[in-house]
Fold this protein.
Amino acid sequence: MIRSFDLIEELQEMYASHYSLTNFITDESGNIIMPAKGNNALFNLLLVRGAVKEIIETVTKEFELSKPFFIDILPGVYACIAPVEGHPGTLLWSGVKIEQSSRDMVKNKIDHLIDGVEVDRLLSQTSTLTLESKKEWLLSVKKAANMISQLKGGGVSLFSEHLKVLQEAFKAEEGNVSRFLYSFLEKNSRIDFLGICEPRLDDFYEVSHAAGEDAEQIQGASFSPGEGFLGRVLLTGEQAFWEGIEKDPKYTFFQKYHFYPKSLFCFPIQLRDGTLSLFFGGSRSSEVNTDTVKDSIKNMAMLMEVILSAESLQKENSGHLSRQSALADISMMLVSAPDLKKISYILVDISMSLVKGPFSAVMLKNPQKQNMMLVSRGNIKGERGSYLKRAAKDYFTATSDLPPDRLVPSMKKLEGSPAIIECPLHFRGEILGLICAGTNGHPNQETEELLPFLHTLSLIAGVSLQLAGEGQENVMERKIEILHSSIKEFDAETNRIAEESFKIAREFTGKLALSEPLIKNILIACKVHCFSHEYLAEKFPEAEFPQIVKDGTGILAEGSAFKNEEPGIGSQIFALAVSYARNEGDMEAIIVRPYMKKIRQEFLSYLEDSQVVEQELTLEPESSHAMGSKSVESTIKNHMNLSSREKEVLDLVIQGLNNKEIAQELYISEHTVKNHLTKIFQKLNVPDRTQAISKVYQLTYNGSANP
Amino acid sequence: MVKREHLSLEMECLTLFQSNPYLFETIQGLEKRLGRRMSDLEPILEGLTAQGILQKTGEGALAYFRYKEPAVIAEFSFTSELEPL
């Protein structure tokens, strides 16, 4: 300690004699810990007269110094103060010099302040402060302070100083990388500038933050990996220190921006998302990176990594929050959208705005038809149009339910053109629509990040579409019911045809492998068959059944020909059902058209089968008694050679009535009943009543006609 | 890297224009309607204009923005032959 005290004193003396300046050292409380050395008469006088005491107190209390700076002891009279690194609050004072322009003013001031001094001599001994000498003075005092710092040793380590910066900065609400850089600079007098380079979208890197004197020159400077000193670190991924770089060909990078460092360091910093940033800095005055400086830089780089990671996490977090609140807004918008068109507008705008690609298209499947509504932004002509059709066909015509992995958004990589995001919109496994958004390039992290967001969006959109679709369908169904009930009110025959054709069409289509929407359209067409298709098309512009009515009516109209193509299967079934109903179920009268052979044959087969089934159904449930009496009754009625009165009597005998009961039933005498019975027995060729009953049953079951 | 911090504001702008398709407004007007700073709104409105979602008439503070409806094909058949659009 004593040794270092002596050395410092010696250093002070050397410095003082070399520069003709007086110097002393103060501690964090403003006490002079190393007394003044040097022959600067003016400064010495001011010190003795206590003119500097107040200034020392102010500087120690209120200034937090990291670099040398000038202070005016009197107006025009300057001292230079430098912090002693590693010993916070310890300052090296050196002075004084006078500004040439202020000499007269200083003379008056000193005359006034200090009596009995030969002012002119004093002033002539004091050096003049010029612009050139200012820089030299700063540099010399900085060097001296550095040497004192090394001689003093110990003290507070720079790393703990850096940690303090970090702690203070994290207390602040918002992390600002530039602010950290400046804080680091303040604590490291050997480093003049610091900066950060970040990747741009176009694979170039640019200096995103720069701190230090004149460092704004390189702010925004861009370079590619491999270019210059900084670009080299991107390639190697290794930290690097350079000294005496002015002769290196790579130096042109800095020259280009009129920035001339003498030594340089650069550290790669890998962030959580895989991107690489660079932390660089150096000195414009010192050429040598000592081991101490290197260690301090390494500490700084470590802390910078923490700072950048924290900032990246903060951004990610605020990105999540922002997305969440955006999703809430979108959900509100979708749920309150009145119809499918509005929903598709919202979706196309959002997808366009999110992906920021050349085009976006929303296709909504029309459940009533084999087509869709397409809403788009950007250019969808040519190849893109063909692609959209293929994608729609792929999703909308799938016969079975799509596997779960096809119900989530995916990147479609197309050969020779940028990838496209496909985002199916579905509800309970049923595809309702599809968003296709073109990207600007091949899939990257940015677009991959969009997929989960789009997935959530597609789920909300699916529910909204379902809700809006149900609403529209309900409105249509209500309208159809009103039309149908009006037929019932005004025209009974037309209503019968409507009901019967509806019934038979429903049963027949149930046997065929037709799609649900088509069956629905055929049945609606039957219900409203009597209206003109023009009227229906006007009232239900989005629906498909008016076309079925049109074509079906064409088929039914005699002589109407379909030149280019056959009418659809729906219209053919409609025509068959209406024709069947009009002819009251007469199978022979059902229309015949050359192009309808197959479906007509199927219809007839269906009718025959259903009649057999009906007969069987009517026979089976009836009781044997009812069946027997009915048959016996008809046997008596149709097949016996008896008078009508005899038939009546025989019928009652079979029902188990005696002569008296029969007489009462027929309002005749018992005697007449006996006469009738005698004749019946004769005609049936039976001896008595029991045999007569047996004979009738026998005839009934054997089916023989007259006895 | 593309910044997505403005996503929420972007959605706010979209909501406003979609809910009021006939809105014809300057940036100052939008500033009042959305209660947002002009400096925040400006890049977003420019972005939406570049994507063809908004239409900009005029320049500078006097520029008006309005919603541009997307192209709609009401009945787009996907079962027909795959000829380009």
Summary: Confidence is low (pLDDT under 50) at residues 613-629 of chain A. The longest strand of chain A covers residues 91-99. Residues 392 and 434 of chain A are 7 Å apart (CA to CA). The domain at 337-471 of chain A is CATH 3.30.450.40 (Beta-Lactamase).
